[in-house]
Amino acid sequence: MRRVQAVVFDMDGIIVDSEVLWRQTREEFAADHGMTWGTEDQESTMGCNTRMWSQIMVERLDLRAKLGMDPAAIAREIKRRLLAKYQAHLPERKGAIDAVRLAATSYKVALASGSPNELAEYVLKATCLDKIFLATTYGDDIAHGKPAPDIYLDVLRKIGVEPENAVGVEDSGNGIRSLYAAGLGIIAAPGPEFPLSGDILSLADVCITEMTEFTLALVEQVGAAHLIRPC
Questions:
Q1: Do residues 74 and 101 share a domain?
Q2: Are 79 and 115 spatial neighbours (Cβ–Cβ below 8 Å)?
Q3: In the prediction, which pLDDT does 228 show?
Q4: Residue 168 · residue 8 · CB < 8 Å
Q5: Residues 109 and 212 in one domain
Q6: Is 214 in a helix, a strand, or coil?
Q7: Are the C-beta atoms of 166 and 8 separated by less than 8 Å?
Q8: Cα separation, 165 vs 161, whole angstroms
Q9: For residue 33, what are the domain limits?
Q10: Do 172 and 204 touch, CB atoms closer than 8 A?
Q11: What is the DSSP annotation of 36-56?
Q12: Could you tell me the CATH number of the domain that includes residue 170?
């Protein structure tokens, strides 16, 4: 039986219900300039680091030709708009903070978030989770963001835990692919706004619909058996 030593959490969509805000921010930016940002566009960016999602936005909205914006420019604009939304209201996902604190009673806990450093750090300080997580790796810290395994491998290295002894909690397709590639046990916790396809769910060991369903027994179940649980 595998011994679970660590639980690694994603942030956007897991700790904070922010995927909706990311979508709204991009939609508002596009609308302000007479363009459209749709569901498929948004899903293509979920879990990506800044370098990746800013490039996706430039390409999908043709920002170089239309507005003379490169990835660095659109990244600054989206981060500015999103930080303002966070400062007005930080949408903590119900049960998420308690889930991290519960995990910390039995395991090492870490954060692997594709979010820009300044936004992730704001969230951690606002929720006081900066005092709980033993290590963090953000999207800006690595060259290859999710779905590459790098971000999870990096944060596990920081806490001295092998992937086979860790369980990750993710909501997005890119995030679950990242966990699978890194070799961690997987708890899928998609939000209602962004359901996961069957092929993505097949990569997860268990699936929960609310973070209030997170328990230590669930972690042990994933670590011990790697059962596939369809939603």
A1: no
A2: no
A3: 44
A4: yes
A5: yes
A6: coil
A7: yes
A8: 7
A9: 19-88
A10: no
A11: ---HHHHHHHTT--HHHHHHH
A12: 3.40.50.1000
Tens-place pLDDT, residues 93-113: 999 999 999 999 999 999 999
On whether both 36 and 116 belong to a single domain, the answer is no
Residue whose token pair is 């914006």 = 69
Q: Tell whether omega for the bond before 147 is within 30 degrees of 0, i.e. cis.
A: yes
Cα atoms in the 13 Å half-sphere on the side-chain side of 12 = 30
Please report which helix (H) or strand (E) contains residue 188, including its range. strand 185-188
CA distance 28 to 35: 9
Position of tokens 């498929």?
Answer: 40
Dist CA 12 CA 16 (whole Å): 6
The letter for the amino acid at 8 is V
Residue 230 lies in a domain: no
Nearest alpha-carbon partner for 109 in 230, 228, 219, 229: 219
Q: Give the number of residues written for the chain.
A: 231
In a domain, 231, yes or no: no
Contact between 214 and 194 under an 8 Å Cβ cutoff? The reply is no
Question: What is the spatial distance between Cα 196 and Cα 172, in angstroms, rounded to a whole number?
Answer: 7
Sign of CA dihedral 215, 155, 200, 38: positive
Residue 164 lies in a domain: yes
pLDDT digits (tens, 9 = 90+) for 138-193: 988 998 989 999 999 999 999 999 999 999 999 999 999 999 999 999 999 998 88
CATH of the domain at 30: 1.10.150
Q: Do 115 and 218 reside in the same domain of the chain?
A: yes
